Amino acid sequence: MKIDLETLRGFFASSPFMVDLGIVPTAVGEGRVCTVLPIAPRHLQHTGVVHAGVMAAMADHSMGAAAQTMAPEGFWILTAELKTSLLRSGKGERLVCEACVIKPGRMLTFTEAEVFAEAADGKRTLVMKASATMALTPAAGRG
C-alpha cells in the first residue's frame, strides 16, 4: 500500500489514543516511519520521567504504520506480539521514534523500533528498543 506523509497523518489522526497522546508522524518511506511526541506533564509517571506505556504505545503504533506501508491493498495491520526493552529514563523535550520493517510476509510482518529522548539542544539518547510481530488482516468486515 503506497502511503505518503499526508495519508499517514490521517491514519494517526483517526486513532483517538494517538491524538490524545500527541504523537505525530514526521516521515514515511516504504517500510519506515518516524514519529515525534513533545513531552508534556501528562506523559510522566510519578518519578518525573516519561511513562513506559507512552513509549510502548508510540513504538507499537509507529511499527504498525511502518508495516502498513508494505501491506497489500485491502489489508490492515494489527499487532500480534509486542516486546519492549527500556534502556534508560525518558526525559527531555520530545520523544522521537524510528520504526522499520525487518521482514515483510504474507500473513506476518516483523518490525523494530527505537525511541529516543531528545533534549532542547537536539542531543538524542536511546531510551527504548522494541520489536513487534504484525498480523495482516482483511480490511473488509472490520467494525
Description:
The radius of gyration is 15 Å and the shape is globular. With 143 residues, the protein is of the alpha+beta class. The protein has helices spanning 5-13, 16-21, 52-68; strands at residues 24-29, 32-38, 75-86, 94-103, 108-118, 124-138. Helices cover 22% and strands 43% of the residues. It has a 6-stranded antiparallel sheet. The two termini are 21 Å apart.
Percentage of residues in DSSP E strands: 35-45%
Shape descriptor reads: globular
CATH class: Alpha Beta
Number of domains: 1
Identify low-pLDDT runs.
none
> Within the largest sheet, what's the order of strands?
1-2-4-5-6-3
The rounded Rg comes to 15 Å
- What is the mean predicted local confidence, pLDDT? 95
The CATH topology name reads Thiol Ester Dehydrase, Chain A
Would you identify the CATH H-level superfamily? Answer: Hotdog Thioesterase
Structural class: alpha+beta
Please, how many helices? 3
The CATH architecture would be Roll
Which percent bin holds the helix content? 10-25%
What is the end-to-end distance? 21 Å
So what's the oligomer here? single chain
Extended strand count: 6
Key attributes of the depicted protein:
single chain, 143 residues, alpha+beta, Thiol Ester Dehydrase, Chain A, six-stranded antiparallel beta sheet, 22% helix, globular
SSE order and pairing:
Blueprint lengths: L4 H9 L2 H6 L2 E6 L2 E7 L13 H17 L6 E12 L7 E10 L4 E11 L5 E15 L5
Antiparallel strand pairs: 1-2, 2-4, 3-6, 4-5, 5-6
In brief, what are we looking at here?
The chain is built from 3 helices and 6 strands. By secondary structure, the chain is an alpha+beta fold. A hairpin with a 4-residue loop joins strand 4 and strand 5 (108-118).
